[in-house]
């Protein structure tokens, strides 16, 4: 259990600023890692700019069973009980194969943006609509209490919100759990980024060879591959062939409904250099027979490794969707990219703090 917890807690600590857009931070933790606290400050929504401390208690059989999550502050929320118990679906449907500490924190953050009046406890004031709930929440924030709400104002003075985590101390203890000893019996280095020296950290390399044992003058043939033979075909024939190849690739983008790329993306891919290289490789493999090469291009006009680069507008939409939805790419496609067939395996760098790409 401890190695699983140590790995997940290390990943959580490292990735917390990025996947929460700097809305959460690790505040405290026990030495045995069975309990830790996360401070969350939503940047938008009904609970914006208010910091809440959530305590995560891990059971002895974690990750088989879900952690217990308690809000240490008094909070007017239909899905956080009066005693602070957090009620989210991920805890009831916990599956260790797909759930971890990071997904649990994401669930809590999601709860502060999306409450469910129909699936929670009966709040003071008994709000029956979102409007009534929001009105009660504003009254509480402004210190306005009536007979139905009562004196809801909680005493949070006893709640310790101080961030006590020392990054080096935390990572050192986690590294000791993950890598307790080196092969030479010494403790593994526990400071992230330190150069590790010793037999336990050295790779075993094969014997160095200067190539003097090779006597065959043609030995290079087995190591190198001819990709193009100059003069085997005229330049004019090559230009005509490439025009046909690009037209064929563009036609696939407009007419092939089975492909995982959109028509716009396939047409864009048809003009990329990798499409040209793919056509030239096939021509060389067919011994510069244009007819045979074009027949093969009909079956595969685009290389399988073609990379589609998004424009600025699409990248901004992806960043917005990632902030709101996270890694639920199916939902992101439905809400932000209805014209694309897939939104995954995307190579894009997102600066969530700067709100830019």
TrEMBL record:
<dbReference type="InterPro" id="IPR023313">
    <property type="entry name" value="UBQ-conjugating_AS"/>
</dbReference>
<protein>
    <submittedName>
        <fullName>DgyrCDS9348</fullName>
    </submittedName>
</protein>
<keyword id="KW-0805">Transcription regulation</keyword>
<dbReference type="GO" id="GO:0005524">
    <property type="term" value="F:ATP binding"/>
</dbReference>
<keyword id="KW-0067">ATP-binding</keyword>
<dbReference type="InterPro" id="IPR000949">
    <property type="entry name" value="ELM2_dom"/>
</dbReference>
<keyword id="KW-0547">Nucleotide-binding</keyword>
<feature type="domain" description="ELM2">
    <location>
        <begin position="193"/>
        <end position="301"/>
    </location>
</feature>
<dbReference type="GO" id="GO:0016740">
    <property type="term" value="F:transferase activity"/>
</dbReference>
<dbReference type="GO" id="GO:0005634">
    <property type="term" value="C:nucleus"/>
</dbReference>
<keyword id="KW-0833">Ubl conjugation pathway</keyword>
<keyword id="KW-0808">Transferase</keyword>
<dbReference type="InterPro" id="IPR016135">
    <property type="entry name" value="UBQ-conjugating_enzyme/RWD"/>
</dbReference>
<dbReference type="GO" id="GO:0003714">
    <property type="term" value="F:transcription corepressor activity"/>
</dbReference>
<dbReference type="InterPro" id="IPR000608">
    <property type="entry name" value="UBC"/>
</dbReference>
<dbReference type="Pfam" id="PF01448">
    <property type="entry name" value="ELM2"/>
</dbReference>
<comment type="similarity">
    <text>Belongs to the ubiquitin-conjugating enzyme family.</text>
</comment>
<feature type="domain" description="UBC core">
    <location>
        <begin position="1"/>
        <end position="158"/>
    </location>
</feature>
<dbReference type="Pfam" id="PF00179">
    <property type="entry name" value="UQ_con"/>
</dbReference>
<keyword id="KW-0804">Transcription</keyword>
<keyword id="KW-0539">Nucleus</keyword>
<feature type="active site" description="Glycyl thioester intermediate">
    <location>
        <position position="87"/>
    </location>
</feature>
């Amino acid at each position: 259990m401890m190695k699983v917890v140590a790995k997940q807690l290390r990943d959580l600590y490292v990735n917390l600023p990025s996947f929460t857009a700097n809305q959460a931070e690790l505040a405290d933790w026990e030495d045995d890692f069975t309990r830790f606290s996360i401070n969350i400050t939503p940047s938008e929504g009904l609970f914006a700019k208010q910091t809440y401390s959530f305590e995560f208690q891990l059971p002895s059989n974690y990750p088989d069973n879900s952690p217990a999550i308690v809000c240490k502050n008094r909070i007017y929320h239909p899905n956080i009980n009066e005693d602070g118990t957090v009620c989210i679906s991920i805890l009831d449907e916990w599956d260790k194969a797909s759930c971890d500490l990071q997904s649990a924190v994401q669930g809590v953050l999601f709860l502060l943006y999306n409450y469910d009046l129909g699936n929670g406890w009966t709040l003071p004031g008994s709000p029956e609509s979102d409007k009534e709930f929001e009105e009660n929440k504003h009254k509480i924030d402004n210190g306005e209490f009536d007979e139905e709400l009562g004196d809801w104002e909680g005493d949070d003075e006893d709640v310790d919100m101080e961030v006590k985590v020392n990054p080096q101390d935390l990572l050192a203890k986690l590294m000791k759990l993950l890598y307790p000893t080196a092969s030479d019996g010494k403790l593994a280095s526990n400071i992230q980024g330190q150069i590790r020296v010793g037999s336990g950290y050295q790779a075993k390399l094969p014997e160095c060879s200067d190539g003097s044992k090779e006597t065959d003058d043609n030995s290079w043939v087995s190591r190198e591959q001819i990709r193009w033979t100059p003069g085997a075909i005229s330049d004019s024939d090559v230009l005509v062939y490439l025009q046909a190849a690009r037209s064929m690739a563009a036609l696939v983008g407009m007419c092939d409904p089975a492909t995982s790329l959109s028509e716009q993306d396939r047409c864009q891919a048809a003009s990329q250099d990798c499409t040209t290289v793919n056509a030239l490789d096939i021509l060389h493999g067919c011994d510069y027979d244009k007819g045979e090469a074009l027949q093969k291009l009909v079956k595969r006009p685009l290389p399988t490794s073609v990379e589609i680069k998004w424009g600025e507008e699409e990248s901004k939409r992806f960043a917005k969707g990632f902030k709101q939805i996270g890694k639920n790419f199916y939902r992101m496609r439905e809400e932000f990219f209805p014209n694309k067939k897939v939104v995954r395996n995307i190579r894009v760098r997102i600066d969530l703090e700067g709100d830019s790409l």
